[in-house]
Specification:
InterPro entries: Cro/C1-type_HTH, Lambda_DNA-bd_dom_sf. This protein has six helices and no strands. The chain has helices at about 5-15, 20-25, 30-35, 45-55, 55-65, 70-95. α2 crosses α3.
Length: about 100
């Protein structure tokens, strides 16, 4: 499995440049770039540290458990809309009483 794109998205979601990420990971910017482009193998220690630095341990846990990260991300991005729809479904019968 190639993790580069997921690593890149996690870094960008946190708002870090490759230089900032490299500093936080105690790596060179070139090493960060190679990881994000799948040019080098991702070590378990770097995997864990990456998601600690980006404050996204839930993504790491989901990946380890074999969850489809694309589907999980889509669900989380659409969660507010889903919750509004659920709330509306419960609110309409109550509002019709008044």
């Amino acid at each position: 499995m190639e993790f580069g794109e997921i690593l890149r998205k996690a870094r960008l979601a946190k708002g870090y440049t490759q230089e900032e990420m490299a500093e936080k990971m105690n790596m060179s910017r070139e090493a960060i770039s190679k990881l994000e482009r799948n040019r080098v193998a991702l070590k378990a220690a770097d995997f864990i540290r990456w998601f600690q630095v980006t404050d996204m341990p839930q993504i790491a846990a989901a990946m380890v458990c074999g969850a489809d990260i694309t589907s999980l991300t889509h669900l989380l991005n659409n969660l507010p809309t889903l919750l509004q729809a659920i709330g509306a479904a419960f609110a309409l019968p109550i509002l019709s009483i008044f």
